Amino acid sequence: MRVYISVDMEGCSGVVHREQTNPIGYDYESARTLMTAEANAAVRGAFEGGATEVVVSDSHGGNGMRNVLIDRLDPRAELILGSPRRLGQLEGLDDSYGALFLVGYHTRHGSTGVLSHTTNGQAVANVWIGDELVGEIGLNARLAESFGVPVALVTGDDRTVAEAKEQLPEVEGVVVKKALGRYTARCLHPERAQQLIEQGAVRAVKKADRLGTEPLGSPVSIRVQFKETGSAEAAAAVPGAVLVADDTVELSCDSVEQAYAGYSSMVALWEPAWGGWIRG
Ligand SMILES: [Zn+2]
Q: Quick check: is 111 in a domain?
């Protein structure tokens, strides 16, 4: 089984502040080390559980999706690094994979949880696919399911795992820290967090075959509410996108993949004026 591991930074144990997730911030180098170590724990567990091939996707927007330290990555894994990406945190995912892991993830914009946001915390407020309000977990789950790939593992703080279980009741969840606020958490020691991730990854691979997917039917609409009207105006330049409120754009597509790519384009249009590194 091929396993795709999308690894973000905000949900890693020891990470609680934007300074850590921003490449020019204090402690960023330490945070990317923690991120790489949690990715490795998931890689080890995936192989232990029976994976035959593992691809890791650096899925933190800071530093242009170049955060994972490739020379410290488990040599059995390959790494998707850099941006821009049509399919964002899941670039390169297709129907050849048997399971998706979301490691180091966080809650959606407006929710309780450490460093909660949806994709681009500077530009984006809320995102809906159809009528479902989604964060990064929901957005990525919908795309993966459209390829027939189940989300088998989600790791992050306790609120993140709760958000994942709301949408994916059967998912394997690993809590590496307890959110005490948006910038405060009670964290497991990294070694303990990595041990739990490895064990969760083993269970996730073993049960991936039993996890069903329910791909959305066509057409698929994605609605994006931005934090300011100028961003919505820029996003409305994407072909097919329509302003449905001063700060909200809707795009209707034949597939989740097209909707996701359209969303990536909307957010990319926001970036040239504002700088693309404060996101993910
Ligand atoms: Zn991130």
A: yes
- Token pair for residue 169? 């009741």
How many domains is the chain built from? Answer: 1
Identify whether the C-beta of residue 264 lies closer than 8 Å to the C-beta of residue 235. Answer: no
Distance (angstroms) between ligand 1 centre and the Cα of 9 equals 5
Cα(203) to ligand 1 centroid in Å equals: 25
- 3-class DSSP state of 206: helix
Q: Is residue 266 part of a domain?
A: no
Strand partners, 236: none
Reduced to 3 states, what is the DSSP secondary structure of residue 4?
Answer: strand
- Within 10 Å of residue 131's Cβ, how many Cβ atoms? 7
Task: Classify residue 260: in a domain, yes or no.
Answer: no
Classify 1 as helix, strand or coil.
coil
CB within 8 Å of 53: residues ≥ 6 apart:
2, 3
Catalytic residue among 60, 106, 109, 117: 117
| Owning domain of residue 175 | 2-117+136-208
Query: 63 CA distance to ligand 1 centroid (A)?
Result: 10
CA distance 68 to 165: 27
- Sheet arrangement for strand 99-105: 78-80, 53-58, 2-7, 99-105, 151-157, 172-179, 185-187
Please tell me the distance between residue 136's alpha carbon and the centre of ligand 1 in angstroms: 10
- Told to judge if 117 belongs to the known catalytic residues of this protein, a careful annotator would answer yes
CA 54 to chain centre: 17
* Farthest-apart Cα atoms in the chain, separation: 50
Whole-angstrom Cα distance, residue 257 to residue 236? 19
Compute the distance between CA of residue 219 and CA of residue 133 in angstroms, rounded to an integer: 17
pLDDT digits (tens, 9 = 90+) for 146-204: 999 999 999 999 999 999 999 999 999 999 999 999 999 999 999 999 999 999 999 99
Whole-structure pTM over 0.85, yes or no? yes
